[in-house]
Write a structure and sequence with these properties.
mainly beta, 4-stranded antiparallel β-sheet
């Protein structure tokens, strides 16, 4: 495993007998350098934990990680040793929560199709009719926006991005009657209502808050087609798109705000004389 210390990447060796857990990882999360969790399918009734000094295995109930369509897809939100959430795609309308002593099932208003985590307690989940967020005591629902569309067109919702415990972004995709993607619309939950925003490109992909009330996103135009570019939204306006230097931008670039900063992590693909290789990018100080 690799650990970012704030100034460099360091290797944290995993004992050979635990390699299966790492190789089968489906979700990871950490609240600090001494509180890291890894959930995998090698033995789905155990989680692998790093305490800052050693690796340990911790039993988890068999209903925490569930298969959907033959595979396990999950999201982990780790806010501390006594506050861990796991959302598994095949689990139905509940989440698994660990309070430091025991795991419990927490009923959700809907089956979550997408989950996003931000800050020290911000968890948002996207259902079929609602966006849901954890208030600290219960799951609150926010009905998804509905607006007029040309006959035959329809909207789908995705790319939910938590800004904090109260605010979130998502992308509304507009399709025509032949199911072709026509455009995308970014939407922002202000705390009381959804605000539909202008889009810098025909198709938006990954998004991440900028730490100051704005948003980063990558996007591409349908016609003429081109490359995925990075856009920044601040003070009500989008800046022109830019491509990370030396990185292939034929596909979306996942983006993540670095907690407590206004900087970003991103991943991508770069090229050398020996071929392509994965890169981790950082924007900002």
């Amino acid at each position: 495993m690799l650990h970012w210390t704030g100034g460099a990447w360091t290797s944290v060796p995993v004992p050979a007998k635990l390699n299966g857990y790492v190789q089968s990882a489906v979700a990871i999360g950490a609240s600090s350098a001494s509180d890291f969790w890894l959930f995998g399918t090698y033995r789905s009734t155990e989680a692998l934990r790093w305490t800052g000094r050693t690796w340990v295995l911790q039993a988890i109930p068999p209903w925490v990680l569930r298969r959907a369509g033959g595979t396990v897809t999950a999201t982990a939100a780790v806010f501390g040793p006594e506050n861990v959430w796991v959302f598994s795609a095949g689990a139905g309308s509940y989440a698994a929560h660990y309070n430091g002593r025991a795991w419990t099932k927490v009923r959700l208003p809907e089956v979550p199709a997408d989950v996003s985590v931000a800050g020290s307690a911000g968890v948002w989940a996207l259902g079929a009719e609602y966006a849901m967020h954890w208030t600290g005591a219960s799951w609150a629902t926010v009905r998804l926006p509905v607006f007029p569309l040309p006959f035959g067109d329809y909207a789908t919702y995705g790319d939910l991005t938590a800004a904090d415990a109260q605010d979130a972004w998502m992308v509304i995709s507009i399709h025509d009657s032949s199911h072709a993607l026509v455009s995308t619309i970014p939407a922002y939950w202000t705390g009381t209502a959804w605000k539909l925003m202008s889009s810098p490109a025909d198709i938006l992909g990954a998004m991440a808050p900028d730490g100051g009330g704005g948003l980063w996103a990558d996007g591409i135009d349908i016609n003429p087609g081109g490359f995925w570019l990075l856009y920044h939204f601040a003070s009500g306006h989008w800046t022109s798109g830019q491509a990370p230097p030396g990185v292939d931008v034929h596909s979306p670039t996942p983006l993540t705000l670095i907690p407590g900063t206004r900087s970003l992590w991103a991943t991508g693909t770069a090229f050398s004389a020996r071929g392509s290789y994965g890169v981790i990018l950082k924007y900002g100080p």
